[in-house]
Amino acid sequence: MRAWKLDDFGFDNLHLYDDVPVPVPGPGEILVKVAAAALNYRDKALVEGIYAPEKMPKGLIPVADFAGSVAALGEGVTKFAVGDRVTSHFYLDWIDGPWRESYTDRQTGGPLDGGLAEYAVLTEAAAMSTPAHLSDEGAATLPIAALTPWFAMREYGDIGIGDTVLVQGTGGVSVFATQIATALGARVIGTSSSDDKLKRIRELGATDTINYRTTPDWAAAALELTGGEGVDMVIDVVGGTGLTDSVRAVKGSGMVAVVGFLDGQTSPLDLMSVIWRQARVQGIAVGHVRAFERLLRFVGEHRIRPVVDSVFDLEDAREAYERLNQGPFGKVVIKIA
Predict the structure, then answer these.
(1) Claim to verify: residue 168 and residue 98 sit in the same structural domain
(2) Residue 96 burial by Cβ neighbours in a 10 Å radius (0-12, 13-18, 19+)
(3) 60: helix, coil or strand?
(4) pTM above 0.85, yes or no
């Protein structure tokens, strides 16, 4: 089969091979004929060697999120039949309950092989039935980018009618956060440095927007938009030095859901802001299978359609990563078959 493999860290070491053996599903596993894979910032950081490099084997097939159809069944599989459409889940073993360190050893797209190939293996438990209204290209965008904000809003939080969510940026997670929060009945404040992207995020449901380039103190602007009270939740995809601003923007006992690290993996957080607001700074590392099942039902019921910025062929995967680096509106997808 054709597959991209990361022979060492760095994009110069990411190569497309034509003769990679097709994996064989073991007991409780399924072989997926991959139709599409979707990029996340994690996938870029992994290639660059800044995402858990100590866990990543040489020769890894990257990209965590993918969708396709069942090509073969391992022994004992009863959940699916050959031909069923399926979507991957990021963690093979996190079915429900609290997160455990051991789950990081069984993640698709690193340390385990991912979906940038014509075939991939999933456990039966970590494969989800694809929503009927979505194409494979649309479904491939869901596992990380949609489940992450859903897990923040509905597992760690209880966002609904009357609540306000501030969403940073207009990448994959941020666009899904806007769509999901809007469908939950919440007010959404979107931020971006681009007025054009802010216009588009309004079309997806954001009621208010802040251009942080022309309004650098966006936290103060968020407070003004909420009558000085603050927002119930910030979906923080930036991290780094801006984390204190996210805390400033939340109301008393509000939550900052830390889901990304675009500005860096460390932060000089002002603890007094956290203490005075009694704010909750909650790390989000995607979510478990039970939450993904709930999300997929919600996506189906509300007919949420992923926003796909661009689609690339398998042989053009490098260009897809470059598009991700440029800051797409929504998701970058790679068509496999």
Answers:
(1) no
(2) exposed
(3) strand
(4) yes
